[in-house]
């Protein structure tokens, strides 16, 4: 029996319409890809090719302009993430799909260990248990212990990125979206992240990732999907519509 992908993206397109300037900004164009459990699909291509816009479409930060984003949920049902209702999307974000973006978001004065524990708490884990798992993940990420109890507000780029990754990995999602998770990390910490990604694969997590460094793609990707830069037109809105 051939294994079925848990995510099947077909003909995904995204363009941004700037109504005030009567302009259309092309982003992702006709993207097809598959993501399998226990496997990592890497998205590559030049800056501006629409890589981040693919992840944002899957997480439904953006609504696609065209295409299907077929996801097989843990309950076995197939859902087009482009069409699912908000309630279902929120449930999937809580229970199944995690997104490590390029920027860390957190509440003011929230301790780092609580920022990391948040996905577990949202799934109903008791706070102390969630915090203990969060601390384990921060330790695995080589975060100095003195930082665990304070807010990430004053952290360096690399420290914030580690907090962001720890939060994405702690709840072991079914589908993990990673947007340049190692861009501000040193080599040693990047190696730690590679080790954690390998471990998640063994545990059956499906991953779709964008990496800054091509050598990381070689090390961790099971499949590579290349996006071409969009064709820039300067057409005014009425010609395109
Ligand atoms: N919210 C947005 N509004 C307008 N244009 C956007 C928005 N998000 C992305 N874009 C544009 O879409 C194109 C692709 O962006 P992005 O998906 O971030 O590419 P990549 O991650 O491959 O560098 C870029 O030209 C970018 O400026
Ligand atoms: Mg990007």
TrEMBL record:
Keyword terms of this UniProt record: ATP-binding, Lyase, Nucleotide-binding
GO annotation, cellular component aspect: plasma membrane
One Pfam match: ABC_tran
Coiled coil: none
GO molecular function, one term: transmembrane transporter activity
Domain ABC transporter: 7-240
Top-rank lineage group of the source organism: Bacteria
PANTHER family named in the record: IMPORT ATP-BINDING PROTEIN
The name this protein goes by in its record: Phosphonate C-P lyase system protein PhnL
Protein's organism: Candidatus Thiodiazotropha taylori
Lineage of origin: Bacteria, Pseudomonadati, Pseudomonadota, Gammaproteobacteria, Chromatiales
């Amino acid at each position: 029996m051939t294994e079925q992908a848990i995510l099947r993206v077909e003909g995904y397109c995204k363009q941004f319409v700037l109504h005030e300037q009567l302009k259309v900004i092309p982003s992702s164009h006709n993207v097809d890809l598959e993501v399998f459990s226990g496997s990592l699909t890497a998205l590559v291509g030049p800056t501006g090719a629409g890589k981040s816009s693919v992840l944002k479409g899957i997480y439904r930060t953006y609504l696609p302009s065209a295409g299907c984003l077929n996801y097989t949920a843990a309950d076995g049902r197939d859902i087009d993430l482009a069409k699912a209702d908000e309630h279902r999307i929120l449930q999937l974000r809580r229970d199944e799909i995690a997104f490590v973006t390029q920027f860390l978001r957190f509440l003011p004065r929230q301790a780092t260990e609580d920022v990391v524990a948040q996905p577990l708490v949202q799934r109903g884990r008791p706070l102390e248990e969630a915090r203990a798992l969060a601390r384990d993940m921060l330790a695995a990420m080589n975060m100095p212990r003195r930082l665990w109890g304070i807010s990430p507000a004053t952290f360096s780029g690399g420290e914030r990125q580690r907090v962001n990754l720890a939060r994405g990995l702690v709840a072991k999602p079914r589908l993990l979206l990673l947007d340049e998770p190692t861009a501000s990390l040193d080599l040693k910490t990047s190696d730690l992240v590679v080790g954690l990604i390998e471990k998640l694969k063994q545990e059956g997590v499906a991953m779709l990732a964008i990496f800054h460094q091509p050598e990381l793609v070689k090390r961790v990707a099971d499949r590579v999907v290349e996006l071409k830069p969009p064709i820039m037109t300067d057409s005014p809105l009425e010609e395109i519509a």
